[in-house]
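job 3f2a | input accepted
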Amino acid sequence: MNLERGQIYFVNLNPVKGREQSGERPVLILSIDAINRLPLVVTVVVGTKGANLQRNYPTNVRVTPEESGLPMETVFIGFQVRSLDPNRFLGNPVGKLASNKMQEVEEAVRYVLGL
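job 3f2a | predicted structure (115 res):
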């Protein structure tokens, strides 16, 4: 499988603990392609339905279906970064973010990490 930065997949995030996002969720691949090609892990930002978050925060990036390829408005949550085994990625990507939206996600993650 050829996993690429900016692609969006639906991935089952279970098992989880505590306040981690659970279940089948859209995830945005954040790690660079040089890492994604290795048999290590893939770093992602987890998404949730836009309706779940009424306010916009500097830690989140809201995307429309047209921008993401997802069936509904989605918010990628900059403080929900996870590294996943490549075997969790089944099937084909459902979408890919354009570079301007990827920059917004990068800014949100930098904000969360204080970078």
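job 3f2a | The chain has a mean pLDDT of 93.
job 3f2a | closed
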